[in-house]
Specification:
The protein contains no helices and 11 strands. With 122 residues, the chain is mostly beta strands. The strands form 2 sheets. Strands 2, 4, 5, 6, 9, 10 and 11 form a 7-stranded mixed sheet that branches.
Length: 122
Protein backbone atom coordinates (compact mmCIF):
# COMPACT_ATOMS: atom_id res chain seq x y z
CA UNK A 1 0.00 0.00 0.00
CA UNK A 2 1.12 3.53 -0.79
CA UNK A 3 -0.42 6.70 0.66
CA UNK A 4 -0.61 9.74 -1.58
CA UNK A 5 -1.18 13.35 -0.54
CA UNK A 6 -1.65 16.14 -3.08
CA UNK A 7 -0.90 19.81 -2.46
CA UNK A 8 -0.46 23.05 -4.37
CA UNK A 9 -3.97 23.64 -5.65
CA UNK A 10 -5.64 27.01 -5.47
CA UNK A 11 -7.28 29.86 -7.32
CA UNK A 12 -5.51 31.36 -10.31
CA UNK A 13 -6.47 33.64 -13.18
CA UNK A 14 -6.60 32.37 -16.74
CA UNK A 15 -3.13 32.34 -18.24
CA UNK A 16 -1.48 31.76 -14.90
CA UNK A 17 0.56 28.86 -13.58
CA UNK A 18 0.33 26.43 -10.71
CA UNK A 19 2.52 23.57 -9.53
CA UNK A 20 0.94 20.55 -7.90
CA UNK A 21 2.86 18.12 -5.72
CA UNK A 22 2.03 14.58 -4.66
CA UNK A 23 3.92 13.15 -1.72
CA UNK A 24 4.00 9.38 -1.33
CA UNK A 25 4.76 7.35 1.74
CA UNK A 26 6.67 4.10 1.74
CA UNK A 27 9.93 2.71 0.39
CA UNK A 28 8.62 1.46 -2.95
CA UNK A 29 7.66 4.74 -4.65
CA UNK A 30 10.10 4.15 -7.50
CA UNK A 31 8.33 0.90 -8.40
CA UNK A 32 5.07 2.68 -9.23
CA UNK A 33 3.90 4.33 -12.39
CA UNK A 34 2.39 7.67 -11.41
CA UNK A 35 -0.42 9.63 -12.97
CA UNK A 36 -2.46 12.78 -12.58
CA UNK A 37 -6.21 12.80 -13.17
CA UNK A 38 -8.87 15.44 -12.74
CA UNK A 39 -12.59 15.61 -12.22
CA UNK A 40 -14.81 18.62 -12.82
CA UNK A 41 -18.28 18.93 -11.26
CA UNK A 42 -20.77 16.66 -13.00
CA UNK A 43 -18.12 15.04 -15.18
CA UNK A 44 -16.18 11.79 -15.14
CA UNK A 45 -12.63 11.59 -13.90
CA UNK A 46 -10.23 12.03 -16.81
CA UNK A 47 -6.60 11.33 -17.51
CA UNK A 48 -4.22 14.28 -17.44
CA UNK A 49 -0.65 12.96 -17.43
CA UNK A 50 1.44 9.92 -16.52
CA UNK A 51 5.08 9.13 -15.93
CA UNK A 52 6.98 5.85 -15.90
CA UNK A 53 8.97 4.50 -12.97
CA UNK A 54 12.27 6.11 -13.92
CA UNK A 55 10.65 9.10 -15.59
CA UNK A 56 11.78 8.09 -19.06
CA UNK A 57 8.28 8.07 -20.54
CA UNK A 58 5.49 10.61 -20.15
CA UNK A 59 2.05 10.93 -21.69
CA UNK A 60 -0.42 13.78 -21.70
CA UNK A 61 -4.04 14.31 -22.55
CA UNK A 62 -4.44 16.27 -25.77
CA UNK A 63 -6.20 19.02 -23.84
CA UNK A 64 -3.10 19.77 -21.73
CA UNK A 65 -0.27 18.84 -24.09
CA UNK A 66 2.24 21.66 -24.37
CA UNK A 67 0.92 23.38 -21.25
CA UNK A 68 1.45 20.83 -18.47
CA UNK A 69 4.60 18.95 -17.46
CA UNK A 70 4.72 15.90 -15.23
CA UNK A 71 7.92 15.01 -13.39
CA UNK A 72 9.04 12.91 -10.45
CA UNK A 73 11.80 12.85 -7.87
CA UNK A 74 12.12 9.31 -6.60
CA UNK A 75 14.61 10.35 -3.93
CA UNK A 76 11.89 12.57 -2.45
CA UNK A 77 9.00 10.19 -3.13
CA UNK A 78 7.23 13.01 -4.95
CA UNK A 79 5.56 13.53 -8.31
CA UNK A 80 4.80 16.99 -9.69
CA UNK A 81 2.49 18.55 -12.22
CA UNK A 82 3.57 21.94 -13.52
CA UNK A 83 0.57 23.66 -15.08
CA UNK A 84 1.00 26.73 -17.28
CA UNK A 85 -1.29 28.80 -19.49
CA UNK A 86 -4.20 27.68 -17.38
CA UNK A 87 -7.71 27.89 -18.78
CA UNK A 88 -11.10 27.97 -17.05
CA UNK A 89 -11.68 24.49 -18.52
CA UNK A 90 -8.86 23.23 -16.28
CA UNK A 91 -10.97 23.87 -13.19
CA UNK A 92 -11.30 20.55 -11.39
CA UNK A 93 -10.20 18.49 -8.44
CA UNK A 94 -6.82 17.05 -9.37
CA UNK A 95 -5.77 13.63 -8.11
CA UNK A 96 -2.49 11.80 -8.20
CA UNK A 97 -2.52 8.03 -8.45
CA UNK A 98 -0.19 5.03 -8.58
CA UNK A 99 -0.26 1.97 -10.82
CA UNK A 100 1.80 -1.21 -11.04
CA UNK A 101 2.30 -1.08 -14.79
CA UNK A 102 2.44 1.76 -17.28
CA UNK A 103 -1.04 2.83 -18.35
CA UNK A 104 -3.21 5.90 -18.85
CA UNK A 105 -6.41 4.09 -17.89
CA UNK A 106 -7.77 5.37 -14.57
CA UNK A 107 -9.19 1.94 -13.73
CA UNK A 108 -5.66 0.52 -13.63
CA UNK A 109 -4.55 2.94 -10.94
CA UNK A 110 -5.20 1.30 -7.58
CA UNK A 111 -3.92 3.97 -5.19
CA UNK A 112 -5.34 7.48 -5.09
CA UNK A 113 -4.81 10.66 -3.15
CA UNK A 114 -7.58 12.82 -1.72
CA UNK A 115 -7.26 15.45 -4.42
CA UNK A 116 -6.50 19.17 -4.55
CA UNK A 117 -8.78 21.81 -6.03
CA UNK A 118 -7.61 23.89 -8.98
CA UNK A 119 -9.85 26.81 -9.90
CA UNK A 120 -9.10 28.99 -12.91
CA UNK A 121 -11.06 32.22 -13.17
CA UNK A 122 -12.07 33.81 -16.47
Amino acid sequence: QVHLVESGGGLVQAGGSLRLSCAASGRTFSSYVMGWFRQAPGKEREFVASISRAGLRTDYADSVKGRFTISRDNAKNTVYLQMSSLKPEDTAVHYCAAADQYTIAPTAYHYWGQGTQVTVSS
